[in-house]
Amino acid sequence: MAFYNPAEEVDPKCFHPLENTSDLDPLLERIGDAHYVFLGEASHGTHEYYTWRARISKRLIEEKGFSFIAVEGDWPDCYKINEWVKGYINQDRKIEDILKEFDRWPTWMWANWEIAALATWLRDHNHNHNLPKQKRVGFYGLDIYSLWESIEIIINYLEKEDPKTAKIAKEALACLEPYKERQFTSVFSSARPGCEKEVVKLLRTVREKASQYDSHEEAGLNAELNTLVMANAEKYYKATSGFGDDSWNIRDRHMMESLNTLMKHHGPEAKVIVWGHNTHIGDARATDMALGDLINIGQLAREQHSRDEVVLVGFGSYKGSVIAGRSWGAPMQEMELPEAIAGSLEYNLHQVEPADKLLIFEEEDLFEAFEEKMGHRAVGVVYDPAYERGNYVPSRVSERYDAFVFIDETRGLHPLKIKPNWDLLPETYPFGI
Known about the structure:
Blueprint: E1 16-17, H1 25-31, E2 36-39, H2 47-64, E3 68-74, H3 75-85, H4 95-99, H5 113-128, E4 138-143, H6 147-161, H7 163-176, H8 184-190, H9 195-209, H10 219-241, H11 246-266, E5 272-275, H12 278-281, H13 297-304, E6 310-324, E7 333-337, H14 345-352, E8 357-360, H15 366-369, E9 374-377, E10 392-395, H16 397-400, E11 403-410
Parallel strand pairs: 2-5, 2-6, 3-4, 3-5, 6-11
Antiparallel strand pairs: 1-8, 6-7, 8-11, 9-10
Helix pairs in contact: 2-5, 6-7, 6-10, 7-9, 8-10, 9-10, 10-11
């Protein structure tokens, strides 16, 4: 696979050095008054991606008034973090104890010390600034995998708040319950006709009544998002059972719908920071994903909003180590991240100058230098360094992102020492991201 190599024609002076938090000034200037900032990662298991995203997020919250962080994680689990950082419940508990409740493989994505540190900062920020509850900065999950957990939460909640709607929820559960022990891929393809209508009916009812639910400040939002998971999970797992690419698009459309729901909840002046893998964050139209009609949330955000409202930031590294599993459900381990293959984005950036750097593509000649297609590394939760050459997505990088954070050498993140519930393995698109 041959890619364009801009290394010889790019002056290192075009790059911004990246050594400390103040070096993020050019990125903050590029973000300007945008309301949507997407922060990517080239793997789900790299320490520096989490810490630099945290540094960027803190500055956006403190200096530009961003309202919340939304991540590529399950809604119920991440909502526990949200409740903790906003001071709703569990204030006598340590954040690491809450994170240890994350059961779904790959647990290391969010149950790690890097997230524990960020959550602690968010709680301290909310407390130290004496923010009213409606102004406290939150932490939410956008993903689709928590079907059964969301059903249980909805029924337990509605039985207390809205018994009439709880009856609708129980009817939806009764439709699906016989298939709970089967693999996710067969649940909806095997379920009797009418399940979809019952779940959509529930979603519509909860959305109509969400503003009336007031057992705590965001109870209605929690009910609505759990019900949205139920509604879109029907489509997602049905598509997965057909072994097509539709499941990828359904998943990203769900994440975008969840994000839009959160923005509406936070009001017209809301600003959001989104954390996700580069394959979700970077505009899919600038990659070979587009050849398979695959979309992602970065593309959807650009399509739904003006260009100055959305800033997409990619991340990558040349070599180091990473946390991943050898196969689905395999124990997490720290693996070597080998030197990037010749001609790839990461290789080229290392060749220009083997140092950490920040690229703002609208500056100097960087857009033109990186508008030709080149390989861009993408490591999933399943990874084998022996097959490194298969982990590159051909990309027009300066069209895929507005900015790029490059770390020359990275290391694996620091998971909490827990084991996942082996019965809760997500069925996801074969990319493993």
